[in-house]
Amino acid sequence: MLRDKGNTVRASATITQSLRAQNPGIRVANSIYDPADRPAFAHDAVSIVAPSELEFEFDDVIIDSQAYRRAMAHAQANIPPSSSQEESVREAAPSNSQGGPIKGTQDSRLLASSSDDTTVKIWESATGRCISTLQGHTSPVCSVAWSRDRTRLASGSIDKRVKIWDLATGQCVSTLKGHTDWVRSVAWSQDMTQLASGSDNNTVKIWDSATSGCVLTLNGHTSQVQSVAWSHDATQLASGSFDFSVKIWDIATGRCVSTLQGHDSSVSSVAWSRDGTQLASGSLDMTVKIWNPATGHCVSTLQGHNDMVRSVAWSRDAAQIASGSGDNTPKIWDLATGRCISTLKGHSNWVQSVAWSQDRTQLASGSDDNTVKIWDLATGLCVSTLEGHMSSVRSVAW
User: In total, how many domains does the chain have?
Assistant: First the structure.
């Protein structure tokens, strides 16, 4: 019998059947894995094996991480495709979305979300209306990020691609190919000349946004890169990995200048403060750590979640941090005291991503319950629930 080394998870019967089909005689059981890896299809859910980067023992059979990847690909191939795979803005539903150019993209009230349903959606946060659905990825979309001028949107997917969307025309203008495994995270530099992406192939890539060419590949992590974040001056990049570390890279030289160690489990999210003096990291060890990137020292550890931390985000004034967790809640932390000042309750499944509104009065959270919630931070109440995604919401960006 499999020795259970980690979290019990739920995934689709389709994947279960694929694992059995490709590995005759094995028994499906619970095992350790990266919870972000789990597929989310609209099928009956059962407990199955979802291997990560380790080997797993099923009675006398050893299956490595590739078995799960093959099973997932096989299952996805047998799911009916969407009506269109065009790299353009498409109408998702006449009642709440429209095709073509997206008007008012520079409006900071517009919110973007990405999902396991392979789409990116653009929402009017004030009305809760989905105004457009971006289709083109062929697998779950793990990350979405606005350019600073809000004219373009980047998305990273399990299909190993990064896409750049021109929201003035409603078109995917570039597909960046180069990663050999899932793309977990994307982030624009502040000057918008470069885009960073982190992947399950343990690397970070830096892309020239004008030419769409990869100009730099950062090697050093020994496991999947879950999150990337630029310093505000775009001279450094932080990356968080399943190797339990945060690395800081000098973009001019491509060298790792610091490795921040202290988490007891995988690092799922990293974020710089706007002034560049602090770096936050969230981990599967259920904590948020605040680092001094100049010294590499951890200056504070925020404890309060009772499940893994999936996402961290700074307020613009760097006075507060938001975190999203597998305990189904976002939390707001006061950095001066290190105390949790608000726990936002309402999601019925893991919170995968959090993002602040530009005026710091609201927080958006994306969840495995397939919704995006918008919270009034003065009252701690959910003021809007955005429904439309057909599967887990992996990322939100305001």
Answer: 2
